[in-house]
Fold these 4 entries.
Entry 1:
Amino acid sequence: MSSKRSYPPVVRHAAQLLGADVRAARLERDWTVAHLAERAQVSPRTVLKVEHGDPSVALGTALDCASLVGVPLYYDDERRLAAEAAQKRAPLIGRRARSAAAPEVDLDF
């Protein structure tokens, strides 16, 4: 059995697109792989994995690299992004945190 996880094509393609954007933006800034790695606090090998679209790289790491070189992530306005995330997350948290309401008991004998 192989320990390497298989990802669907849509995930691989999204990772490749993000990686290509990161590489292009890094080159536009005249940054080396080592410079981006230092800024992202990861190894140069990890930056290369991001740029090659390796879907096994941690999502936070890939998004951090993208953000550092100026690749837009959803919205340029950090407050709008945070508000949108909170709005979408709140209904999910509410459903998970609340137990189902107990049925009302008729105490009228």
Entry 2:
Amino acid sequence: MEKILTGTADYDYKYDILFFKAKGREYVRSIELMNVVLDVDSEGVIVGIQIFDASSFLNVSKNRLMDIPKWRFQVTVATGKVEVRLAFQVKVRNRIVEKNPIITEPTSEPLQDQKMVCVG
């Protein structure tokens, strides 16, 4: 069953970390994958994403990550694999450009199979 949540996005310019978080959901643990950290709530639902070294990982300048007018992330967990599909917009010379990275990683963490979408 797919859960659809609304959320917030934030960017830490100094440390180059991009955050996406579902509103009203608190995480109780985190799972590290490459330079991405997934935040998991008490129900086992992934409710947040932190991307470290975001500007180089996403190939977007740090200044452009300061203003993300629209974004969406979709997380699918199935048979020990996590897939994160991220879609977000940045402004480039007065134009809106959409980026769509996909992160797929195996995980040994105990996660329930799920599909969750968070939009902001």
Entry 3:
Amino acid sequence: MANVLDVAQYILQKQGPMSVMKLQKLIYYCQAWSLVWDEKPLFNEEIEAWAMGPVVRELYEVHKGSFELRSLDMGNSDSLSSEQKETVDAILGTYGNQTAQWLSDLTHFENPWNEAREGIPEGASCIREITLASMHEYYSSLPPSDNE
């Protein structure tokens, strides 16, 4: 199975340089829609409900201190199967042209992030997991898109 760094490397190769915030949100949506479309996770690392939206700590540890990334020193995009690449490509087609702030704001309107942060004051630190079950339940309840 691919790991989060493999997925991040693939996104950067396909989309080009981007802010770390945007990359984290694209990673989140890739995982969410993989659960719906492919009926399995894209990677095993947990997604946490940070104040600015979903974050994968393992990816954060690699880009910590950076604002923008062009590529990663780690991660192998060839680790993704053709099915996984199709899922990521569909996400990039839907969300890839949006700004980091737009993507962050979108996650704040959706149930998985809000449920994980229940009882946490706005802007406060939080490392609670956004569960795969909550992501699958929420995103599978949305109307189908043209990307399926």
Entry 4:
Amino acid sequence: MAVSIFSRHYGLATVEEDDPATGTSKVSLAQRLLPAPETFPDALLHTVVGGETLDQLAARYYGREDIWWRIADANPGRFPLDWRPGEQLSVPPIRVATRTPRR
């Protein structure tokens, strides 16, 4: 299945592995390697309040809740649901959150 150019997985390498059941068929697996997080001087520093979630923050800052993963990628090493009130996270600027990956 082709990956949309708007997908965060677009352009990623695939790995072919032997099918464990038959030992001969090849199975393509999408592999996502996270690059080092980019830092932006114009990123916002948001202090989490109450039960805020990354999709709520994406809707607030970008007007689109479906790109919550851009905030997650800017704050690696944390499960997206583990943010607690009072903790601070980086919110990348809108120009970064809505860019389309290049091939």
